Amino acid sequence: MTIYALSSGPGLSGVAVVRVSGLNARKVIKSLTKGKFPESRSASLKKIFKYNSDEIIDEGVILWFPGPNSYTGEDLAEFHVHGSRAVIEAIHASISKIDNCRLAEPGEFTKIAFQNGKINLLKAESISDLISSETEIQRQQAIKIMSGKSSEKFEFLREKLLKILSNVEAKIDFPEDDLPKDVIKNIKNDSKTIREEIQKILNDQKVGERIREGFKIAIVGPANAGKSSLLNYLSKRDVAIVSEIAGTTRDVIEAHLNVDGYPVIISDTAGIRESKDEIEEKGIKLALKRAEDADLNIILLEPKSVDFTIFLDDLVDEKEIIVLNKSDLGTEELDEKIKKYNPIIISIKEEKNLDKLICSIKEKLKNKFITSKEILITRERHRQNLKQCLVHLKNFEDKNEQKDFDKAAEDLRLATRHLGAIVGKVDVEEILGSIFSDFCIGK
Q1: Among residues 145, 156, 217, 214, which one has the least CA distance to residue 377?
Q2: 112 within a domain of the structure (yes/no)
């Protein structure tokens, strides 16, 4: 089946790119253009016609990439045309009339490239991350993963495990006396070295995931302390409804920010207080859960938040910034229970000391993104496979010590399989479907 789709972004643009991949890509070019067929990898300016008609759709540049030397590994064509909705729809309609041509699914071009061995899973994921990147640090990380260093690292570890596995199988098949003594010794040393190396990779403070997904900040505190106003101020737009009525915010409201190049997802949450309202109570549970999952919590109080101090002991740790809002109402008689937390005193209404709060947020951000190691893990999928690899390696070592070599070999095979799953040495269609469904159509 030949697939086609708009590969450039939707909406009006000066130029749009329609990509076609598959056995009938050549036929698509012949059916929609006239004259000499374009040369391979050369730009050809041609009039593009409706299928089986002399009516011109547009005039644009045609590129022809015969397989296997193309992005997908199949015959591939690109139509570079003017980016109006009418032009795109007319080209799509014409291609759809050609035998065995259909609209591509999200990520299908890249999925075919993976299946044809043009790229591995890590590179496929990094392409998706590059397309989705909103900040400089996200772009840089995607480019680093695309360069292949992460793939090389995981492939290297996998090959070392395969070498150990071959030695274990030799130990099963042959008497120990027939094997070199250093083989037995190397099995133990090498498996321990790999296990320690994987553990070091896992001890990365999840920096790669933070960069890819965004640093999560939750604004939590009592009702009517100014949480929604703070979200609106930091977002520089009205994201949340602001009201004097306590309990206005019932659900979690999110805004995506770029703070000095760092991707941030900041959440306004329901005011935490004792409530008998069923909906508000659910909102409070969501707020506490969001605070638990966040990388940083801004606990926003106001001078009358004495009752809220009973919640503070459960919330305050190293990932909190304590802030006292509404300083314009006076802080001379501030309760000692609040004073002991040494809060940053601000007034959102008068925009007082907000720069101090922002500096504190930036400092926390920088500390969380600092890493002395090369980033290798950018998704939970990678992390879970590495953790499972560690589990099987530990089981292997235990069974190897007990000289239960047959079962030890099986654990080693499972460990190798989990490492292979990171770069794409898998045959599980569900995993591939999950990964490529995150792509946009046309990629």
Answers
A1: 145
A2: no
